Amino acid sequence: MGTAAAIGVALHVLTATAWHFAPAFRQLGLLPVGATLIGGFTGWNAGSRTSGSMRAKVGAGALSGGVAGVLGSLTSAALGVAPLGDLAQAGGSMLVTGALGAALGVVLGGRRTEPAGTGTLAATVALRPGPWLVVAYVALTVAVTWPLATMPFTSLAADFGDAAFITWVITWVARHLTDLLQGAPGAWTAMWTAPIFAPETDTLTYSEHHIGQTLQVLPLYWIAYQPLLAFNTVYVLTFALTGVAAHRLAHYWSGSHLAGAVAGITCAFNEYRLYWSMSHVHALSIHWWLFALWGIDHFVATSSRWALAGATAALVMLHLSSNYLMAFCAPVTAAFAIWTLARHGRLRDVRAWLGLASAGALSVVVVLPLVLRYLGMRESLGFTRPFDEIVANSMSLAAFRIVAPWFGPLMGLALVGALAPSTTGGHLSRVARLGLLGILAIALVLSMGPVLALGSTTWPGPYRVLLDYVPGFDGLRVPNRFMSVALSLASLLAGLGAMWLARWRLGLIVVTIMTVLATRTLVGSFTINRVIPAGVGMVDPPAGLGNPPAYLRPAVEPPAIYRLAAQTSPGAVILELPFGDMAYEVLYTFFTLAHGHRIVNGYSGLHPPSYVRRQGVLRWPLRDADRSWAALAPATHVIVHTSAWTDDTGTRVRGWLESRGATVVGNHDGAWLYAMPAR
Asked: What is the bridge-based pairing of β-strands 663-668 and 671-675?
């Protein structure tokens, strides 16, 4: 084991040195890719030198990979060839890939593995997933999201945009669920009128409610009121539980932890999740669907009522976690249920059909009041998504070409999994795997939205049927989130393909390379506390508007100006300037947690007409002073963030307010709180 670790240290330092001196290697991501491969090689080497059970070999591989990662990173940092932060991320991944490499070495056991039921493969099959599986994926998630684990109370995963907004939603919902559990009358109704877009009501329905995510961290909210910690915990759980769910389902189908590991890693850490869906925990919560599929399959196979109950509970949690996934998973879940019935020869079994139908119906009935509330909001506002906006947020052939560097290897493994003549020790026939590939293809086509385009030729896509005939779909903006469903199925098939390829040494190398390529953003792509610049998405941003000042950064202690605002009368309604820029609006929304008052501003998935009209005037408050003054009407207090502008606009806005009779309540950090005169 010591020899393997020493070789790993040398290779890690050599890779870091090449990464430092060759710009081309940096562009290719040599450090994270190299660390992943070296970790796997080190673990394989250590495992082959260790006698005993597979658990001992995997432990030796993990230890050797971790030692090589730590010592190699420290040595490289001492030599000055790479930043310690990059090295820490790369070295941390070597612990997990070391364990994976050792497991692959056990599975390999020579040129080909032994038949199921004998030798090392039997040990692989017999090692049932347990707590170690959860620990492994939590550790991998911590490594990928490093250094978030060192600052969970003071930082936000991803950015101060949607991440800050979702943090606000979770905290707001947690407050009211707690009140509801304590018997407070009206807590449920009050929850839906969130303190944004005053004087509008039912404002929580303008975006996802995140009740599912809130339930996961509600005990944490009771123990310590730390909004940032709550979001970061949910964020980590979405990756870890997705890995566990995919690993467990692939292992259930195959009896192979190699299949499980490839499925778990590619499902949890593909680029779509790490880059395209970075802070959208509702879109990342696909693990509930995977747990539901596992329960459905197990119920059909065994008639277990516990499995059916588990599938139902998982579907309820899925529906409570994401309106998108509730809608997008539904048709695919129905197809999967039929596929499962056919695979187990129970298509004519009325009891099996009734069991699955009752699970689906119950999961819908539980959330039906929420669905009706959202549909009612849309009807009252007359809201539908513009068709062009839906098309713009769909996958296309051009988009698939962009994602080809990581999507191609994943689909390559998935095709092998579907087409392989046999999966050693597996339980899915090739016909069954081809059926699963067909369901995957349906999800991919649906991700392309209502219009399929090839060059200048277009056809109506099957998504158009959902858009035209299923209530609620015309309010969903992003058809490409069907990719979450498709990629989950692709990862499961990829795990089966990896298991088949790993019967040969060359195949094992191919599996390792393709898995690394499919998760090429696993190391180095994660960000924390990313500032959303002013003017993003605005057609005509106000001149002189700078990025949000430092005091508006979410932290444990709220800004002093909001502590001052909290002292105003309970019925106060606050309007903040600058108005209408999303980089600012999301932070104003977040800090309602600090002062506890309603605001005229707001940030959400849609904006009510009253806000849009006000935004058109107050974005430039001094352009038409009379109209701007009228637009302030709902507010009893105004906060002016003078340092938000790079010129003297903030000072001139203050002068305008004072000339109209507004009185200064106080100021901190360049932010001024005004009490508005009675009208």
From this structure: antiparallel
3-state secondary structure 447-508: HCCCEEEECCEEEECCHHHHHHHCCCHHHCCCHHHHHHHHHHHHHHHHHHHHHHHCCCHHHH
Question: Over the stretch 500-515, which tens digit does the pLDDT of each residue have?
Answer: 998 888 888 888 888 8
**Residue written as tokens 């699970």?**
359
CB neighbour list of residue 130: distance below 8 Å, 6 or more residues apart: none
Average pLDDT, the chain: 84
Amino acid 348 reads R
Nearest CA to 370 out of 511, 210, 253, 258 is that of 210
Tell me the two tokens of residue 199: 């004087």
pLDDT at 643 (0 to 100):
94
Q: Residue 524, by phi and psi: left (phi above 0), alpha (psi -120 to 50) or beta?
A: left
Tens digit of pLDDT for each residue in 378-390?
Answer: 999 988 899 999 9
Q: What is the DSSP annotation of 5-72?
A: HHHHHHHHHHHHHHHHH-HHHHHTTHHHHHHHHHHHHHHHHHHHT--S-HHHHHHHHHHHHHHHHHHH
Record the pTM.
Answer: 0.82
When pLDDT is cut at 50, 70 and 90, the band that residue 528 belongs to is confident
Taking alpha carbons only, the member of 248, 246, 318 closest to residue 281 is 318
